[in-house]
Design goal:
Blueprint lengths: L25 E5 L6 E5 L5 E2 L8 E2 L16 E2 L33 E3 L8 E3 L1 H17 L8 H23 L4 H33 L14 E3 L2 H10 L3 E6 L6 E4 L2 E2 L15 E3 L10 H17 L13 H21 L5 H7 L43 E2 L1 H10 L10 E2 L17 H20 L11 E2 H9 L17 H22 L12 E3 L2 E3 L1 H6 L1 H28 L6 H12 L36 H11 L12 H4 L5 H23 L7 E2 L12
Parallel strand pairs: 1-10, 3-11, 5-8, 8-9
Antiparallel strand pairs: 1-2, 2-9, 4-12, 6-7, 13-18, 14-15, 16-17
Length: 704
């Protein structure tokens, strides 16, 4: 058995057992602390070698916590974590029956990403699919916990949200092997904890609440140890494996002395990298007390592995990304000042730079100048697409979104640079009324194929201060010139000081964004380059001629920006950034229902098997309009907390599931218009709407 605990041996009636009064009899072994402390058990024929109370709690290279791994090994009892003692052993009747939950992660399970940044990779695709199937079924299988006591319901909510977030993090972002394995093991851990919670609700809780004597019906679960005789008695009567730690006394009747059962050999003893450590030789034992170390380790894992969220679209003074950006801006300003002879204010430059700047190395020696990305000239007589809506000739906009975006009209130039989470689709799309040269479009599209994975990763990468980029920075990124040298167009000293400073800031921003992609080992654009897109290799000829590929890339840019923008706008208007982690997870799970099934705030990347020809935003009398009821209801639920909600949407969330087509169309139009108006009021630009592609090309194979 993967739990590696010896099989239970039935109790004989003539053997002394735990009673209400008297000593605790059974199998005995020393606990390793000395000769004055023993572990005895009335219902097991072994004594596990338990985690030392003052030892280090850390993550090993198999993603597990060694002897502290509560999903595989008995731990100390705590009244707030009773369900941990009910986690099933492998092969027991309470085992959910999914083999991947007991899988020991091997080095071959992590596959290096050959087309992304170095040292990053993913879990094998077959294991990802198996984990996805397991997570979905475990959450459904554990539904009875929702009918349990309030504390059980709270635990179930925490675990289901946590496992979704952890799994989405595992799927979305390629990472180093240690992080991927730790995430995969945490998915296993939380799934088994859900199984233990279900066993507790269905088996143990009724036995305890009804006072039934089930000492001879011992459950095939992990069990727990304790130093409290009353707790040991309660677990024993409920049929839960239990070990009592007590001082050695002459009146303890011992059936048999057994050697300590060591933890399974499959549990690694090699610390992971990066190493997640909670307590290094905590001699006081404070953090290792049952109610503290587990909650603290949860917090540690959440903060280090799954605590990342989509950053703010517009930074504020309290945001970590802003502070990181300010630091890099000061470095760039210093360089710009020394080269132009004009001092600039870092505060001013910080507004011109997006918060997504990576650390900048010392400036190397001057190199021969390279051609820079040309300034947008096609829009000199056209208002930019973030100020005015232009319909796409590549993908299909739904009528409700077209009406809402056109109703806004032409926006004024925003006071801050318009920023986007992912390359805005209009930079490489074919828009009606906003011309773009074919050379520029094909070059940007090919470079997008090269950097698209990194553009997703950097949103959650704290080491590179990942965040949205403004229009100029995305133009630099898609142009593909990542040379770190100083641009040949240095500001002239004959210009006015304000113009010199502005030009210096622009050049500093240009060099900063080049550094972001240069440090990720991306090469400069080359016409003969070929880049991986899923299972195919894409060339410049493909992005020029393959309309299916172009549609897929434009659709992905819409969908990525749309999902991130919904998350960011809701966090801004609802103020959820100040909430507890659990409440933020719950809110982000609700937000994710706007574009799909309930998942997490990490679910920003559409899966390859998504039907890109369908839409949940069609308007009656289209025959598919009723499929949009769940998505519209989720959007209306979000808008309840948004300021300025119109009276026409009051109570709309409760009637959208049953209303007729005419009422549905009115509610949909009002909700989308309120979303667009709220976004424009908050960010001073038009949002990126969801789109679909024509059905005849909807079956194209998409990249991951």
């Amino acid at each position: 058995m993967s739990s590696h605990l010896p099989p239970r041996r039935g109790l004989q009636p003539d053997r002394p057992r735990l009673g209400a009064v008297g000593p605790f009899d059974g199998f005995v072994a020393s606990d390793g602390f000395g000769s004055f402390s023993l572990f005895t058990t009335p219902n097991q024929n072994h004594v596990p070698r338990l985690a030392v109370a003052v030892g280090e709690i850390t993550t090993f290279d198999d993603g597990r916590w060694g002897a502290h791994e509560y999903s595989r090994w008995p731990q100390s009892y705590h009244r707030h974590f009773v369900h941990l003692a009910c986690i099933p052993r492998h092969g027991s009747v309470y085992d959910p029956g999914f083999p991947v939950l007991w899988h020991d992660w091997l080095h071959g399970d992590w596959i290096k990403d050959q087309y992304g940044p170095s040292r990053l990779g993913r879990l094998r695709e077959d294991l990802i699919k198996e984990l996805r199937h397991t997570v979905d079924n475990i959450i459904t299988w554990s539904e009875p916990c929702k009918r349990g006591p309030p504390d059980v319901q709270q635990k179930h909510r925490f675990l289901t949200l946590g496992v979704r977030l952890c799994f989405d993090r595992l799927c979305v972002l390629p990472s180093e092997r240690g992080i991927i394995v730790s995430l995969a093991s945490h998915v296993q851990r939380l799934c088994l904890e859900l199984a233990g919670l279900r066993a507790y609700v269905r088996e143990v809780l009724p036995r305890i609440s009804e006072g039934r004597d089930c000492r001879t019906d011992v459950l095939d679960v992990l069990g727990a140890y304790t130093a409290d005789p009353s707790v040991a008695q309660e677990l024993h009567r409920a049929g839960v494996p239990v070990w009592l730690q007590q001082h050695r006394r002459p009146d303890i009747a011992i059936w048999e002395v057994v050697p300590l059962t060591p933890p399974p050999a499959s549990l690694s003893s090699t610390p992971s990298f990066p190493k997640l450590v909670l307590a290094q030789r905590d001699l006081s034992g404070f953090l290792n007390t049952p109610g503290r170390w587990l909650a603290a380790m949860y917090t540690k894992v959440n903060a280090e592995l799954i605590g990342s969220r989509v950053p703010l679209l517009v930074s504020d003074n309290h945001d970590d990304n802003e502070e990181c950006a300010r630091k890099k801006v000061r470095e760039l300003d210093s360089e710009a000042s020394s080269s132009t002879g004009v001092r600039t204010r870092s505060g001013t430059t910080a507004q011109s730079l997006a918060q997504g700047l990576a650390p900048v190395a010392a400036r190397p020696a001057k190199k021969p100048s390279r051609p820079k990305a040309p300034i947008e000239s096609t829009g000199s007589f056209n208002v930019n697409p973030f100020r005015r809506f232009y319909p796409s000739k590549t993908v299909i906009h739904e009528e409700a979104w077209i009406d809402a975006l056109r109703r806004v009209g032409e926006l004024k130039q925003p006071s801050k640079s318009a920023s986007y989470f992912f390359p805005p689709p209009w930079m490489f799309d074919n828009l009606d009324g906003f011309p773009l040269s074919e050379e520029k479009r094909s070059r940007r599209t090919l470079q997008l194929v090269a950097i698209r994975t990194f553009c997703r990763v950097r949103l959650f990468d704290r080491t590179s201060c990942g965040g949205p980029l403004n229009v100029q920075q995305w133009q630099e990124a898609l142009w593909g010139d990542y040379s770190a040298g100083v641009s040949s167009s240095q500001p002239s000293k004959r210009k006015q000081p304000t113009k010199v400073a502005r030009e210096a800031n622009r050049l500093a921003a240009q060099q900063a964004i080049r550094q972001v992609f240069a440090r990720a080992d991306f090469r400069n654009f080359a016409p003969d380059a070929a880049h991986s897109y899923g299972a195919r290799v894409v060339t410049l000829d493909d992005v020029t001629r393959d309309q299916d590929l172009i549609r897929s890339l434009v659709w992905e840019a819409h969908e990525m920006n749309w999902r991130c923008e919904v998350l960011a706008l809701d966090a801004e208007l609802a103020g959820s950034r100040r909430w507890s982690d659990l409440d933020q997870w719950a809110r982000e799970s609700l937000v994710s229902e706007v574009w799909g099934s309930a998942s997490s705030g990490m679910d920003i990347c559409p899966l390859g098997d998504v039907d890109r020809s369908s839409s949940c935003w069609v308007r009656p009398p289209d025959a598919r309009w009723e499929s949009g009821r769940p998505r519209l209801r989720a959007l209306l639920e979000l808008q309840r907390r948004w300021p300025g909600r119109p009276a026409s949407l009051s109570g709309a969330a409760s009637e959208v599931d049953e209303c007729d087509a005419f009422r549905f169309a009115n509610i949909q139009a009002a909700a989308i218009e309120f979303y667009v108006d709220s976004f424009v009021r908050t960010y001073q630009r038009l949002p990126i709407p969801p789109v679909r592609i024509p059905h005849v090309v909807a079956t194209v194979v998409t990249g991951s």
